[in-house]
Amino acid sequence: MSTAPGPARAVVVVGGGLAGVPAALDLADRGHRVTLVETRPRLGGLAFSFRRDSPVGALRVDNGQHVYLRCCTAYRGFLDRIGGTSLAPLQTRLDVPVLDPGTGRLGRIRRTALPVPLHLGASLARYPHLSPGERVSAARATFALRRLDPDDPALDGQDFAGWLRRQGQTDRAVEALWDLIGVATLNARAGDVSLALAAMIFRTGLLTEPGAADIGVPRVPLGDLHDTLARAALDRAGVTTLLATRAGRPRRAPGGGWRVALAARGGRDRHELTAAAAAPAAPPGPAPRLLPEGALDHPGRLPRIGTAPILNVHVVLDRKVLRRPFFAAVNSPVQWVFDRTTSSGLSGLPGGARAQYLVLSQSAAGEEIQLPADVLRKRYLPELARLLPPVAGARVLDFFVTRERAATFAPAPGVGRLRPGAVTRAPGLTLAGAWTATGWPATMEGAVRSGLAAARAVAGGGSAPTRSDDRHEESV
């Protein structure tokens, strides 16, 4: 994002995801005349909804299950800005049921109102998926995490699993506790995660304020938030939003600023804007090709930032089998299961009250992301019945999968030094995207923070922190 010199203060933001929309709103609030350009016919980036003509009727389907935490203050601010806070409520207190289908035991990760770290003490002391010795060892590792500084460059090159082993964590403890949280928030298992990012997530979410990790789950489709409400907020702010429009590489304009060629889908209605420019929220690999020559200090680093997939398995059953909004699983290929009956519109369909729509959210999906739906059905339906025995007697009304092969950047050891900041070497041109140097992993929070950092860089004449300078020490 960027502003042209002179009184016009025109800004072009390229990309209508959770980086671009907050950036556009912030820039408009600062008095800029903003044009937001998005290639797709909708806003929301990788957190969107679509309509499915299902055997049970028309469903509103999220491409993937997304949640946020109380410590995600930038995303919470975005929800408030677009009028969506009440549509994505937070838990009063963190409470995650954790099922083991092998033993039939139900554990819970939940907090009390006691100060950190005592707020999780009772939960850990009774956690049935670890032995008494493993619980004591996990508590010691938690205290050791508090002593780590996520901003220490030395941590970036280390992997989280190695650090956990040095803290005496068993393979079972890593799977049943650390990866239970880490896979969902980082989209990778401990051996594939930078210790710096792991320390940031666990410290911010579990070791700052008691309520930091309280979970927020949208009770409406993501499209209602990130497209419908976001578009209305942009309109109120005076932002010109161009959907289904492709932006070309910014070129220097005579007299200063940037020229951005625009073309509507299909190549019709080609025109050019002269103002400031923002790099599209593209994956890091293609980003150097979408920026002017010399804009980045180390363009060769960006293609080295890998991506990680997320798979979602959608199951509609003819009866209610789950009475909780969600749960997690251990010792199972299933990771997290969410009830999306109401948000999908199923409960409002004829006979819908007798049906239930569940989503199995599978992060770090690896090779599974390529498997056909029928193979995934044979793998996951029996496992779901092991976790929820009533599933065995239910009739499957619909089964389908959604895949995001490049859902997030890979939080691998060493990724921190590859992530660029908001400011580029091209005057008036800034960079946004969850994969930039926000200090956060690839979450909705990280995306919003990147957009706000880019907007601040515009307002400051090209100077913005590469790390979040307003991280709220309240919660994840």
The dominant shape is globular
Q: What strand line-up does the widest sheet have?
A: 7-6-16-17-18-15-19
Poorly predicted ranges (pLDDT <50, ≥5 residues)?
Answer: 1-8, 463-476
**Level-1 CATH class name of the largest domain:** Alpha Beta
Structural class: alpha+beta
Q: Give average pLDDT, whole number.
A: 91
Main sheet: strands, sense, barrel? 7 strands, mixed
**Domain count:** 3
Strand residues, percent: 15-25%
Global Rg: 23 Å
CATH architecture of the largest domain: 3-Layer(bba) Sandwich
Tally of alpha and pi helices: 12
Alpha-carbon distance between the two ends: 28 Å
Helix fraction? 25-40%
Number of strands: 20
What this model shows, in words?
The protein has 476 residues and is an alpha+beta fold. The protein has 3 domains: 10-46 and 223-305 and 412-459, FAD/NAD(P)-binding domain; 49-89 and 216-220 and 306-409, Polyamine Oxidase, Chain A, domain 2 (Alpha-Beta Complex), CATH 3.90.660; 109-212, Guanine Nucleotide Dissociation Inhibitor, domain 1 (Orthogonal Bundle). It has helices at 20-29, 73-82, 121-125, 132-146, 153-156, 160-166, 171-186, 195-206, 222-237, 341-344, 373-387, 444-459; strands at residues 10-14, 33-37, 49-54, 57-62, 68-69, 95-99, 106-110, 215-216, 240-242, 245-247, 251-252, 258-264, 270-275, 277-278, 307-317, 326-329, 336-339, 356-363, 396-409, 429-430. A 7-stranded mixed sheet has the order 7-6-16-17-18-15-19, sandwiched between helices. Strands 10, 11, 12 and 13 form a 4-stranded antiparallel sheet that branches. Strands 1-2-9 form a 3-stranded parallel sheet, covered by helices on one side. The longest helix is centred in the middle third of the chain and has 16 residues, at 171-186. The model is unreliable at 1-8 and 463-476 (pLDDT under 50).
